[in-house]
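User: Hi! I have a protein structure encoded as tokens and I'd like to know what sequence might fold into it. I'm fairly new to this, so please keep things simple.
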């Protein structure tokens, strides 16, 4: 049975000033529930047949606005219940629409979210939130404000402030995407009503600058992999192998390679959870990737690659070690790139972009692999990668060789 929503002037109750309260009546499964709208009218100003204020009703426009907004809220909640195939009663419908907003400031939510992300070992994402938190404090002076205070004009002032302080376009975009994510979380946690959401009118998508080319051709990839380093320092072969391994294994990033152990190798597949997103990734291991693993895999060592060791016990020491190694690795890769006349600065991240680009140029369907691996498409790419049959991925990845 469908729910019936009506607005009526409740004549059974008369206030001391002679007015009757306006009520919303919810009918569902033969049961009726009433809830006051918080406003009242004198009976001579109400059209009882049409259930609306008469033309001469004082504050007619405001009353009609309240009635329309409240009716829309109930209609929207009913649609959500039906979309989720969730049964409801008249009582649960009223509670869902009128659930109290939790009083929590922007600063409190940010700090709680940073703490939660750190507990989930999503350190990079936690740092992004901390950067935005600090930026917002510098801009506003404090974050003892509510999300309902963040409107379009507030966002425009923040954007202007970022630009005046020399922030790059993509940095501004990153700040606003994180702030938008925090606002969405606030709505989800009932900290702010959805009607205050400012990002429908303020488009974060405009804050994007096309990233410079970060991919190279298959021929250039092979030149890097086959580079003759003539027994020079230890970071050169490691840099080449990490670059090649990322290319052969779906563009796995440096942090995830650092944490790789034998437990991630199952029946000829690489299975791991991305540190950045928490997404579970499953990819077939190409023969050349297996060769690299066998070259580094040692008994007694927890990690496959010589980036982390048992010595690095704390999260901070692991972060420091990863930063040190990736700096040295990328330095060697850039030197190699210059010697090979590769037109862009070579880093491990280039392998991630090149993985997608080589497959796309080989004619692999964009349904299986997206061309770009920038921040706006990484999640989509990973969703596509693990949503297809392994045989499809196996066949697609043969184009890498």
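Assistant: Happy to help. Inverse folding works backwards from shape to sequence: for each of the 401 positions I chose a residue that suits the local structure. Here it is:
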């Amino acid at each position: 049975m469908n729910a019936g929503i009506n607005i009526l002037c409740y004549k059974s109750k008369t206030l001391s000033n002679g007015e009757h309260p306006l009520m919303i009546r919810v009918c569902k499964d033969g049961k009726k529930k009433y809830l006051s709208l918080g406003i009242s009218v004198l009976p001579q100003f109400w059209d009882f047949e049409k259930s609306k204020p008469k033309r001469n009703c004082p504050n007619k426009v405001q009353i009609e606005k309240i009635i329309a907004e409240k009716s829309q809220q109930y209609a929207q909640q009913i649609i959500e219940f039906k979309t989720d195939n969730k049964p409801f009663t008249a009582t649960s419908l009223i509670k869902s629409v009128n659930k109290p907003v939790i009083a929590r400031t922007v600063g409190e939510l940010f700090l709680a979210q940073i703490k939660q992300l750190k507990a989930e070992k999503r350190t990079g994402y936690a740092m992004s939130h901390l950067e935005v938190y600090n930026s917002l404090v510098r801009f506003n002076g404090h974050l003892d404000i509510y999300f309902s205070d963040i409107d379009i004009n507030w966002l425009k002032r923040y954007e202007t402030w970022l630009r005046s302080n020399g922030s790059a376009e993509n940095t501004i975009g990153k700040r606003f995407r994180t702030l938008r994510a925090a606002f969405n979380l606030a709505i989800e946690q009932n900290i702010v009503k959805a009607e205050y959401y400012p990002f429908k009118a303020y488009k974060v998508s405009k804050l994007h600058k096309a990233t410079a080319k970060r991919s190279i051709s298959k021929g250039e990839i092979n030149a890097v992999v086959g580079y003759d380093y003539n027994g020079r320092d230890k970071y050169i072969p490691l840099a080449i192998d990490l670059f090649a391994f990322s290319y052969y294994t779906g563009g796995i990033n440096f942090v995830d390679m650092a944490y790789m152990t034998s437990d991630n190798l199952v029946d000829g597949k690489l299975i791991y959870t991305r540190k950045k997103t928490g997404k579970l990734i499953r990819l077939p291991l190409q023969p050349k990737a297996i060769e690299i693993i066998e070259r580094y895999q040692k008994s007694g060592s927890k990690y496959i690659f010589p980036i982390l060791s048992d010595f690095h016990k704390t999260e901070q020491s692991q972060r420091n070690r990863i930063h040190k190694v990736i700096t040295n690795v990328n330095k060697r890769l850039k030197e190699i790139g210059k010697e090979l006349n590769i037109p862009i600065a070579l880093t491990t991240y280039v392998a991630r972009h090149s993985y997608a680009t080589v497959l796309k140029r080989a004619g692999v369907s964009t349904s299986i692999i997206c061309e770009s691996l920038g921040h706006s498409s990484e999640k989509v790419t990973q969703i596509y990668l693990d949503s297809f049959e392994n045989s499809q991925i196996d066949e697609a990845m043969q184009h890498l060789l």
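A useful reference point when you look it over: Residues 370-393 have pLDDT under 50 and may be disordered. Feel free to ask if any position seems puzzling.
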